[in-house]
Design brief:
The complex is a heterotrimer of chains A (about 325), B (about 290) and C (about 400).
Chain A lengths: L14 H16 L6 H23 L8 H16 L5 H23 L4 H21 L16 E2 L3 E2 L3 H23 L2 H11 L1 H6 L4 H27 L9 H14 L6 H15 L6 H16 L3 H10 L4
Antiparallel strand pairs in A: 1-2
Helix pairs in contact in A: 2-6, 2-9, 2-10, 2-11, 3-4, 3-9, 4-5, 4-9, 6-9, 7-9, 10-11, 10-12, 10-13
Chain B lengths: L1 E2 L2 E2 H32 L6 H19 L3 H22 L9 H23 L15 E3 L4 E3 H23 L1 H11 L1 H6 L4 H23 L11 H14 L4 H21 L7 H12 L10
Antiparallel strand pairs in B: 1-2, 3-4
Chain C lengths: L1 H21 L5 E8 L10 H18 L5 E8 L4 H13 L5 E4 L3 H14 L2 E4 L16 E3 L4 H14 L4 E7 L2 H16 L3 E8 L7 H10 L3 E5 L3 H12 L8 E4 L4 H7 L1 H4 L3 E4 L7 H13 L7 H20 L4 H10 L2 E3 L3 E5 L5 E2 L2 E6 L12 E7 L1 H4 L14
Parallel strand pairs in C: 1-2, 1-3, 3-4, 4-5, 6-7, 6-8, 8-9
Antiparallel strand pairs in C: 10-14, 11-12, 12-13, 14-15
Helix pairs in contact in C: 2-12, 3-4, 5-6, 8-9, 12-13
Classes of the chains: A mainly alpha (about 325), B mainly alpha (about 290), C alpha/beta (about 400).
């Protein structure tokens, strides 16, 4: 997938990235004073989800139309671990992440065999299978989902039922995930991934096993999406079918597109925009779908760089 | 007589139902295969255009008294025209970009169309009466087959085979296929390639709308009727081979049959079986059953 | 001196009057009507429930002396538990809502039930069917008003099984409500001497039931029970007549039907269907008068039992708030259980320890087109089941609140 070549790997131009990072941390640290913290936690979960997705799409050039399967499955497994097995929240999140990673390995092995549109279609179909599995399997609770998930005691003594403690926990995980993705993108692995995106055959001729790299990227992306899902299940104390439905896969594509593919901060901005829009337009019911569709169309036709992409283009600095 | 524990009568009944569902899969995947095979566009709007077809027929009947037969003719033309509009104004700009942008655009359009109709008509369905000549049914002994559903099987078979014939066996079809392989060369021969592409997209959309009109008397005419169906149809097209017309037709009917059988033996899996088959086919023959590696 | 005394007296009077309201959180009783505003259940509850809630507030203000300030807000949960619980949380944390009303769709109701209990608010459920709300999931903050799966199963199931419909085939919508309905109906049928000859789970929601209806036909069961609701029920009934099932001698039992479904189907298709409901607009003068008022505010559409339940539950709640001088969750619900109910819509009834509201229930049959005098004149009452028999016995529900 060709994207405007803005992201650069040289450490010299990292200053703009650090400034943006500082601003992002400041916003999320201070905002809970005025904005409903549960809403902000939702934004952070989706931002992590979108960042994980962007790793695959923006930097790897692979459009997955089934990423909801990682968000949702990890939500279910971590909810199950927290509620039925009584695990501490940090263990439940780890468990959710691992189960998403396993699913990503299996799904990725199947999907990587094809490219472009076929890849997207395969991920979509695999996600549908996960959806129907979630509908039927007894442990997921079908339509009810897994309800009354206890937030538990972090490390055994920090009570996450308090919104403040939970917020700090979510913020920490979000920043950790974000920094990890940043590191991956600016590592040799990230470089090769970008090379594969730009011209796969050339990368193969240079001796790289492109399939292995793509699979690894897929697994990392899926695992981090799983982290987002696991945390989200604890924040809302509910794991439901909405998180494995294909419309959720569509939403993460939208967030990344709106925010700016191939930029580090784009997905965060995109998630903030879309989640806010859903929140404030909720009373209007079906209008949310219409507005999302319009945004999709406008972004594809006229706004391909996305919000952060446009800012980065204007500043002539990578973001 | 029992086959695997199910009386043969019930089995044949289920197979017939499966064939009816397969007719819709075939019609819809035909439209998708035409659009993808010839234009390399994934038309995610297909499901919404199917729904549009049903709604136009419904509105035509309730507001203008246009009967079923007229609707069968007019609706595909009308909705096909909207397809032409979409292609001319929006899709055209994306041809030079990665194909995935086309997918995203049509996805967005699908959301818009579906949202607008959901806003206007709510989620519960609108009733559409079965045309009088098809009311009642045949008592086949092993089941009672409503006449209308028999008509659906026959009509879709005819449309599918006619389309296949035109594309694979006529000169017009040959031009179309050549134009997708090498548009510049075909244009140099004096054939208006952009117009052909536009009309082809319109034709694929018209096929979807036709399926919608035919579905109206059976399923409820409701704004979400295309949403979940479209993903199943994608799976059908992938299994059949993304560019293969015959593949789409055969797979559509075939998968309808398999789904019907699954509903008898293991109904909980009836929704997943198509995706499982897709995964298996992709492992063994990545280009699809009838497709050629591009 | 006199002036000082007077002003002290005035201040004291204000304080007293103020004290009655000071207990009410934020000075306003905020009522949140949450349901499906645009989807499958929009006609059964939807915006009509908002109308009903507002009517209850108006009627309460006419007769009350407490001077309470009340506000009604609405939200669409789109039948999804995550959206429903999000709305509930935001309503309680940010918008200071005191009571949530209606909530059809069992999965959402269960999720909201949980949150209401955590935050110690009040939940007046009118729309959901799951009898677990007064069973395993019962809570001191919840009142389950209009109906539940046990009532439906017992009313319809027993009545039909006793009158010759003794072999049953279930078409069950594959989600919490469908399963609960199937379980309760099967128990009632078996108790009345019938038996189940087959079951099939249909994906929820579905549009095409032809395959499942064929299986029902092949089973040769006398009664095909539709353990589903809304669009699923309408579709299955229409397709059943398309496939000649009713002509072939089998009868359909709609386990959960509302007058709106009959309206959508038309009397031609729906005639002869038997089902149970707890309110019908044409029962008596009082219900007629209220329903006409409702229809005038709701586009001429007659109320369903869910919408009637919203009116009654809100009215009773407000009376309890006035009597207990507080709107804190468990205290109001206790008061609601202490006061017997007598309203124009459901007659005399009461709320039990497990939160179940009991009232008489009616077995109705859909009229033939020739018997109906006009739109909405659809039902004839075949039997009335008294309040103490219509609902699951108090000790049979596994509710921890019920002392054994």
């Amino acid at each position: 997938m060709t994207t405007p070549a803005i992201a650069s790997a040289s450490t010299a131009s990292n200053k703009s990235l650090w400034v943006a990072f500082a601003i992002m941390v400041a916003v999320f640290a201070i905002a809970p004073i005025w904005v409903y913290p549960v809403f902000l936690m939702k934004v952070m979960c989706f931002a992590l989800f979108a960042c994980a997705f962007n790793l695959l799409l923006g930097f790897g050039g692979l459009l997955s139309f089934g990423h909801a399967m990682f968000l949702g499955l990890a939500g279910y497994t971590s909810a199950h671990a927290a509620k039925v097995w009584g695990w501490n929240p940090e263990l439940a999140v780890v468990f959710g992440t691992l189960s998403a990673a396993v699913l990503a390995y299996v799904a990725g092995s199947l999907a990587i065999r094809r490219q472009g549109i076929y890849f997207a279609m395969i991920t979509l179909a695999l996600a549908q299978m996960v959806f129907f599995f979630s509908l039927q399997a007894p442990f997921t609770g079908g339509e009810d989902g897994i309800q009354a998930v206890p937030r538990g005691q972090l490390f055994g003594f920090i009570d996450l039922a308090s919104n403040t403690n939970m917020y700090i926990f979510v913020l920490a995980i979000f920043l950790a995930g974000f920094l990890f993705i940043w590191r991956v993108v600016h590592s040799p692995f990230g470089q090769i991934l970008k090379a594969i995106r730009e011209h796969q055959d050339r990368a193969t001729s240079l001796g790289y096993d492109t399939d292995r790299f793509k699979l690894l990227a897929f697994v990392i992306s899926g695992a981090l999406a799983g982290t987002a899902g696991a945390v989200k299940a604890l924040v809302f104390q509910l794991a439901s079918l909405t998180d494995v439905h294909w419309s959720m896969s569509g939403e993460v594509v939208l967030m990344t597109l709106v925010g700016g593919m191939g930029t580090l901060f784009g997905p965060v901005a995109g998630a903030a925009v879309i989640v806010s829009m859903q929140n404030y337009l909720a009373e209007l019911g079906a209008w949310v779908t219409i507005v999302q569709g319009v945004i999709f169309v406008i972004c594809v036709l006229a706004f391909r760089r996305g919000i952060v992409g446009e800012i980065a283009n204007w500043l002539k600095k990578p973001l | 007589m029992e086959i695997f524990g199910i009386p043969s009568q019930a089995l044949f009944g289920q197979l017939l139902i499966g064939l009816i569902n397969g007719s819709f899969y075939a019609l819809l995947s035909l439209g998708l295969a035409v659009i993808f095979g010839l234009l390399n566009i994934i038309n995610f709007t297909h499901g919404a255009q199917y729904m549009l077809g049903a709604f136009v027929a419904y509105l035509g009947l309730t507001k203008f008294g246009i009967n079923y037969w007229l609707a069968l003719l007019l609706t595909p033309l009308l909705v096909g025209a909207t397809g032409v509009l979409i292609e001319r104004t929006m899709l055209k700009q994306l041809y030079k970009l990665d194909h995935l942008y086309g997918l995203l655009l049509t996805f967005g359009l699908a959301l818009i169309i579906q949202g607008l109709f959901r806003n206007e008509f709510g989620s519960s369905g609108m009733p559409y009466p079965v045309p009088e000549v098809f009311q009642g049914g045949f008592n086949l002994g092993f089941m009672f087959l409503p006449k209308y559903r028999a008509w659906v099987i026959v009509a879709s078979l005819v449309v599918c085979l006619a389309t296949w014939y035109v594309i694979e066996r006529t000169k017009l079809g040959a031009y179309l296929r050549a134009a997708t392989e090498n548009p510049a060369l075909v244009q140099a021969f004096g054939i208006n390639v952009p117009r052909m592409i536009t009309l082809t997209y319109g034709f694929g959309v018209a096929l979807a709308a036709l399926a919608g009109v035919m579905a109206a008397p059976i399923y409820q005419v409701n704004p979400t009727m295309g949403a979940d169906l479209i993903i199943v149809v994608f799976a059908v097209v992938v299994i059949g081979g993304m560019g293969s017309i015959m593949g789409a037709i055969v797979t559509g009917f075939g998968l309808g049959l398999i789904e019907g059988l699954t509903k008898v033996f293991y109904p909980e899996a009836s929704a997943t079986v198509i995706f499982v088959i897709m995964a298996i086919v992709l492992l063994l023959k990545p280009a699809g059953l009838f497709g050629t590696q591009k | 001196m006199k002036r000082k005394l007077l002003s002290i007296a005035a201040a004291a009077a204000c304080a007293l009057g103020g004290a009655a309201q000071a207990q009410v959180t934020d000075g306003v009783v905020k009522i949140g009507v949450m349901n499906d505003m645009s989807g499958l259940y929009a006609d059964i509850s939807g915006p009509g429930a908002l109308v009903a809630a507002r009517m209850a507030v108006e009627d309460f203000q006419k007769t009350s002396k407490a001077g309470l300030k009340m506000e009604v807000v609405g939200a669409d949960h789109q039948n999804k538990p995550d959206i429903g619980s999000n709305i509930a949380r935001t309503w309680f944390d940010v918008d200071k809502v005191d009571v949530i009303v209606d909530v059809p769709t069992s999965s959402v109701a269960l999720a909201v039930n949980q949150i209401v209990r955590e935050k110690n608010k009040v939940f007046l459920n009118s729309g959901a069917a799951t009898s677990d709300l007064t069973g395993k999931a019962c809570s001191p903050n919840t009142v389950h008003w209009t109906y539940d799966t046990w009532m439906l199963a017992n009313g319809t199931g027993t009545a039909i099984a006793k009158t010759g419909g003794n072999t049953w085939f279930f078409l069950t919508a594959d989600y919490a409500f469908g399963h609960a309905l199937e379980r309760d109906t099967e128990a009632a049928v078996v108790k009345a001497g019938g038996r189940t000859v087959g079951k099939v789970r249909t994906p929820f929601p579905s549009q095409d039931f032809s395959s499942f209806l064929l299986q029902a036909q092949a089973s040769k069961a006398k009664i095909i029970a539709l353990a589903n609701a809304g669009g699923d029920t309408i579709n299955s009934i229409k397709q059943a007549s398309e496939f000649g099932i009713t002509k072939g001698g089998q009868n359909l039992a709609g386990m959960l039907m509302f007058i709106n479904d009959v309206h959508a189907l038309g009397l031609n298709t729906a005639q002869g269907l038997i089902f149970t409901e707890s309110f019908y607009w044409d029962l008596n003068d009082q219900t007629r008068a209220w329903s006409r008022r409702f229809a005038a505010a709701h586009g001429g559409k007659m109320p369903s039992m869910v919408q009637a339940g919203v009116y009654s539950s809100v009215l009773h709640y407000l009376k309890a708030v006035e009597a207990s001088k507080t709107d804190t969750g468990t205290k109001v619900v206790e008061q609601m259980k202490a006061l017997p109910t007598d309203d124009p819509l459901f007659g005399k009834g009461s709320i039990r320890a497990d939160g179940r509201k009991i009232h008489p229930v009616y077995l109705v049959e859909v009229k033939k087109p020739s018997e109906s005098k006009g739109p909405w004149d659809y039902h004839k009452v075949r039997a009335t089941i008294p309040a103490n028999e219509a609902f699951r016995p108090l000790d049979a529900g596994e509710c921890p609140l019920v002392k054994k």
